[in-house]
Amino acid sequence: MDWRDVENPEKEREYLLKAIAQKPSAELYYKLATVYENVKDFKKALFYGNKAINIEPNNIEFNEFMAFVHGKNGDVPDAIKYWERVVAIDPEDSQFKIDLSTMKECLPFWIEQHKNSKIVNGDSMDKPLCDENYQDYLDTIQTASNLLNKNNEWINRFAEYAKGIKKNISRIKNKKDSFNQWSPLYLYMNVSQAKGDAIFNLRYLGQSVADIDVKSDGSVKSIKLDQNRYKKHNEDYFGFIHNYEDDKTIWEWSGKDATAAKAFRKHFCNNPQRIKVEQKKENHEHRIESMFLTEFSKRDAKDKRKELRNIQPVKIAKIARFQMPTPFSASNDLKYPKNGKGGGIDILARVGKGNSTKLCIMELKDENTAKEPPKVAIKQGLAYATFISKLLRSKSGKKWWNIFGFSGKVRKDLKLLVACVMPISEYKERNNESFKGIKIVHEGCTFELHYIYFKEEINKILEINTSLNS
Q1: Contacts of 35 (CB under 8 A, 6+ apart)
Q2: Could you write out the DSSP letters of every residue in 182-242?
Q3: Do 380 and 331 form a contact (C-beta atoms < 8 A)?
Q4: Would you say the C-alpha torsion 355, 306, 184, 360 has a positive or negative sign?
Q5: Residue 164: C-alpha distances to residues 84, 168, 341 (Å)
Q6: Selected residue with higher pLDDT from 218 and 443
Q7: 440-468 burial, b for 16+ CB within 10 Å, e for fewer?
Q8: How far apart are the C-alpha atoms of 349 and 316, rounded to whole Å?
Q9: Which residues partner with 364 through β-bridges?
Q10: 423 contacts 366 by C-beta, under 8 angstroms
């Protein structure tokens, strides 16, 4: 019987140990090391990996494995040592050089974090630069970067987006000055609207319920309730029923002919709860997203109830909420669709004060489960943050930097925050904080990882636990 035929990890480990006792070999030691790595026993994985290298010191696969495991274990200096060996053995492989360069960029942060170590009860309390998922995070960034480099059509497309939005900023502001917004109805715009006709989308609990357009002369033209898009939705989900005359779907927002629009506003200002409880997962996430955008939009100085200070959401023209598009999908495996239209960033926010303010990419989930833990959300956020970093370094970078609410040029030492936003789980181990403050450097951009765990009830945030304020 060959050890390759053993599929059960426990039995495989037992078989390999017996095989090594009878006739040790580099191949058997290496296989045993991979078994321990798969169950996250990095100490034993490194022990047996080292035994394999002692027999075959120039084996690329063995040395690459040791570099990989040291990286996952947060031991940056040793990871660098083995990547240097790999490059020395095969200097023609460009990917090995990239991996070595990426790890070297992490070294200053590792040194900084370890020089202030604390000793408690005789044990070192040093936290490594990275948790056990660090290599996965690096791989996500590299995969996203490679996709964007390979499919670079997005550069010109997003440059056109930025050009159109910048050109439309004054128009958007002038349109908004023509009418008032009533909470809990909030204005949204997608990129097409922001660079095009500047029509506002009106949402309640994150769901579209109407459109607002304004004439070019500044007078409010109408509120549009497209029967195909909104009428049935508003009746079924929010109980808003109106007797349409002659199938009229365009109502005056204000003035003597605004009876229908006033009834519409009054209904939603009474905070109707959703009638149909069953809903798509994405709709539930939109509700939570809206809840956080409302929380973030509170003014620090005027609203003492604001849970998170020094944070404001990015808005088009500082008016309309929007979901920043990206050219790829990060929901499951990273993919670049043929049309280049991928997923959207859940929330973009500015975090901090003055010159220390940073852009934060937030990936929001409506559940915190073993199947979809914080690690998954962080990886999705990192993929989108990689796009933002490349976008800000592209030819339209300054325009996007300004659209995101920053003045001047894009900073040379660009730092982006990446945060998962998830419910607090009753299982403490799922409220993972191990990645708090971890910094990953890639192509001159530093990505810093954070979390926001929350409790909510009836569309109100009751509790927030976050690393963004630390």
Answers
A1: 9, 12, 13, 16
A2: -TTEEEE--HHHHHTT-PEEEEETTEEEEEEEE-TTSSEEEEE--IIIIIHHHHHHH----
A3: yes
A4: positive
A5: 47, 6, 18
A6: 443
A7: bbbbebbbbbbbbbbebeebebeebebbb
A8: 12
A9: 421
A10: yes
What is the pLDDT averaged over residues 314-333? 91
pLDDT value of position 217: 62
Burial classification of residue 90, based on how many CB atoms lie within 10 Å of its CB (0-12 exposed, 13-18 middle, 19 or more buried): middle
pTM value surpassing 0.90:
no
The token pair at 59 is 């084996």
Burial class (CB in 10 A: 0-12, 13-18, 19+), 154: buried
CB proximity list for 343: less than 8 A, separation 6 or greater: 326, 328, 329, 330, 331, 384
Cβ atoms of 191 and 161 within 8 Å: the answer is: yes
Map tokens 């796009």 to a residue.
387
Contact, 391 vs 399, CB < 8 A?
A: no
Q: How confident is the model at residue 107 (pLDDT cuts 50, 70, 90)?
A: low
For residue 377, CA distances in Å to 11, 138, 311, 373, 380 come to: 34, 14, 20, 7, 5
Which residues partner with 448 through β-bridges? 417, 439
51 and 36 in contact (C-beta within 8 Å)?
no
Of 220, 214, 219, 202, the C-alpha closest to 264 is 202
Structure-block tokens of residue 265 = 């506003």
112-149: pLDDT as tens digits? 555 443 322 222 223 344 455 777 888 899 899 999 99
The contacts of residue 169 (CB under 8 Å, 6+ apart) are 317
Count of other CB atoms within 10 angstroms of residue 10: 10
Alpha helical stretches, state H, 313-423: 374-392, 397-403
Two tokens, residue 429? 């181990």
Q: What is the DSSP string of 437-452?
A: T-EEEETTEEEEEEEE
- Rounded Cα gap, residues 65 and 63, in angstroms: 5
Q: What integer is the mean pLDDT of 198-218?
A: 85
